[in-house]
Design brief:
Elements: E1 3-9, H1 17-25, E2 34-40, E3 43-49, E4 63-65, E5 70-78, H2 81-90, H3 101-111, E6 121-129, E7 135-139, E8 148-152, E9 155-159, H4 162-167, H5 177-185, E10 201-202, E11 207-211, E12 217-221, H6 238-255, E13 263-266, H7 271-282, E14 289-298, E15 301-303, H8 306-315, E16 319-325, H9 327-339, H10 350-361, E17 366-368, H11 373-376, H12 383-386, H13 392-400, H14 405-411, H15 421-431, H16 438-462
Parallel strand pairs: 13-14, 13-17, 14-16
Antiparallel strand pairs: 1-3, 1-9, 2-3, 4-5, 5-6, 6-7, 7-11, 8-9, 8-10, 11-12, 14-15
Helix pairs in contact: 2-3, 9-10, 10-16, 13-15, 15-16
């Protein structure tokens, strides 16, 4: 995990290096291994680094291609960077580092904003072109890496976290009424580009934004996930589907083994994280560190599932770490966990994730987890009832929403009550083409919206 920030101006003023430095300093927890700053007239970029690939100073950011007038700040991991690096060398580029940041920089030099279509990985980046004065912002296909924006008084600022953006000052921190409705009804999910604050937006996943010197902005969604049933699907046997899923999972896990530092796994003992451990072992990962968390028993109910995680750890001979949390420690950690959030989150396991991440950071810098499996493989309880639903949008809202519109209206001040924004959003999503069956419409919504703004954001913030 790294973090970056920056500012560009459209009114002839120089970018404020002081503001960008404040924003960058606020990202120290995301990048404790180094920092850097780039300033050139109307643009300034800042970066905090966590060393994962190419631990040398050659991979330091902001990374600049002086000959082409490009400056880049990047957060993430490009899984196919070696293949892309080889292709770029064949095209005449000379790469001096062994990490993925320079590959992103050279890929942009070769293909421009369309380079994102060639990147396989999790990423957010900001790139400044000296000659054109253009700023390019991009985010990965499933929004794993965050990017927040604010435009005020002839300038645009951006950062990897909302608190870092606020550290730059002069942002409208009033509550966005539509976002508040989503937050209070849609299980704290606030679909992009909105955030809970009126003056802050987030760049949607799978999006490239090009901001010209005069402030004109063009956004393009470069990828879309289809949920339509394909011709021939019905003839595929269950055994063939299992083989395809196994192969896809194997490739996904192997891609994420890229690191010049040790890799671990958050092991709950459930099917998803246990599969990750098994596939890593199958791929030849040795001395794999695994981490499990458990809580103090209460009212006769156990607070851990160590019996399952222990079973997996023994089966694959991992270096297993168990963190047992007493209730008093949860309360003590609550303020720190809240401070780590970019946006308000209500999930009950936020504090547990935060404490587990503290323990993990003492041993490794990179972990894989099974987060997202329920959204991808229809693991939640509301999917089966939707299979034969004649009113899927209504049924989805009934089982997923925390409260309906009338309950929301009773809970907030009258000035915050308007339309039923969350119900309208779900209805719009379900009506969009590209998913025919009700359960597929729900899976699309959960994968492209809820997954990004709940479990993915939670793991990013808490770790």
């Amino acid at each position: 995990m790294c973090g970056f920030s920056g500012e560009v101006t459209f009114d002839g003023d120089r970018a404020s290096v002081t503001r960008v430095q404040r924003m960058t300093d606020a990202l120290a927890s995301r990048g404790p291994d180094g920092s850097g700053l780039f300033a050139q007239g109307r643009a300034a970029l800042g970066h905090r680094r966590l060393k994962i690939l190419d631990l040398s100073e050659r991979a330091q950011q902001p990374m600049v291609d002086a000959a082409r007038g490009l400056a880049l700040v990047f957060n993430g991991c490009i899984y196919n960077f070696r293949e892309l690096g080889d292709e770029l060398r064949r095209r005449g580029h000379r790469l001096t580092s062994t990490g993925d940041t320079e590959v992103v920089l050279r890929a942009y030099a070769e293909w421009g904003p369309a380079c994102v279509e060639r990147l396989s990985g999790m990423f957010a980046f900001a790139l400044y072109e000296r000659e054109s004065g253009r700023l390019v912002l991009a985010r990965d296909r499933l929004g794993v890496k965050p990017l927040y924006l604010s435009r005020e008084s002839g300038r645009l600022r951006f950062a990897s976290s909302l608190p870092a953006l606020l550290a730059g000052g002069d942002i409208d921190t009033g509550i966005d009424a539509v976002a508040l409705h989503h937050y209070m009804t849609f299980h704290s999910v606030v679909p992009p580009p909105r955030t809970i604050l009126r003056g802050v937006e987030k760049l949607p996943a799978a999006t490239v934004a090009v901001i010209e010197r005069d402030g004109a902005r063009n956004e393009q969604q470069y990828w879309n996930l289809s949920f339509s049933r394909q011709r021939g699907d019905s003839s595929v046997t269950a055994a063939e589907w299992r083989a395809r899923v196994h192969d896809s999972l194997r490739r996904a896990v192997e891609r994420r083994m890229l690191a010049d530092v040790p890799v671990g796994v958050l092991l709950s003992g459930g099917v998803d994280s246990s599969l990750v451990v098994g596939l890593l072992a199958e791929a030849g990962q040795t001395r794999l560190a695994t981490f499990s968390i458990g809580f103090e028993a209460a009212h006769g109910e156990r607070g851990d599932e160590f019996e399952y995680s222990d079973l997996v750890a023994r089966a694959f001979s991992t270096e297993h770490h168990k963190l047992e949390i007493r209730s008093a420690r949860l309360l003590e950690a609550l303020p720190r966990a809240i401070a780590a959030m970019s946006e308000p989150m209500v999930s009950y396991d936020n504090v547990g994730f935060y404490l587990l991440a503290e323990e993990v950071s003492r041993h490794v810098k990179v972990v894989q987890s099974g987060q997202g499996a329920d959204e991808i493989f229809a693991g939640y309880h509301w999917y089966p009832p939707l299979a034969d639903s004649s009113a899927p949008a209504d049924d989805y809202a009934r089982v997923f929403f925390d409260r309906d519109h009338l309950e929301y209206a009773d809970a907030v001040a009258p000035e915050h009550v308007a339309a039923d924004h969350s119900r309208a959003f779900v209805a719009e999503q379900f009506a969009a083409p590209g998913a025919e069956r009700a359960v597929d419409k729900a899976l699309r919504l959960d994968t492209t919206v809820m997954l990004i703004d709940d479990p993915v954001k939670r793991v990013d913030n808490m770790t």
